[in-house]
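Researcher: We're reviewing a set of sequences before deciding which ones to prioritize for further study. For each one, I'd like a predicted 3D structure that I can look through quickly. This is Ribonuclease VapC. If possible, include the structure in token form so it fits the rest of the review sheet.
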Amino acid sequence: MTRDVDRGYLLDKSALWRLATHPDVEQWFSLIQRRLMSVSTLTLLEVGFSARNGADHRQLLGSPIVSSMPVENILPAMEDRALEVQRMLADRGQHRAPSVPDLLIAATAELLGLQVLHLDKNFDLIAEVTGQPMRRLDQAGAD
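Model: Here's the predicted structure for Ribonuclease VapC, in token form for your review sheet.
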């Protein structure tokens, strides 16, 4: 992992759980400890949605990787930007590819000056129209 991380990362659920088993796990956790990696409330809701019951919900959201990251709340300006990006994608006939959570996470990262760390090709599509930096988590550890 050698790229510049000055701007920090907003973690998408697609990459969240893979960090713990990633070959560069120590470097990623170092970024979390230095508060250069955060998570959005929307990602927390997605994680909570995958819980089987209340105990599982508490365990997932209370895991060290999740509970140690700063949480970025979605603001009205981010909702507006997500709508704008969806419109830009609609102009290209691609508005049904990224999910609403993907659009909101990307807008949150863009307006906060963060990169989305992901494993979801739809973030690359969003970046094509916004020009914002995105970072795909390399599963082989060649980041």
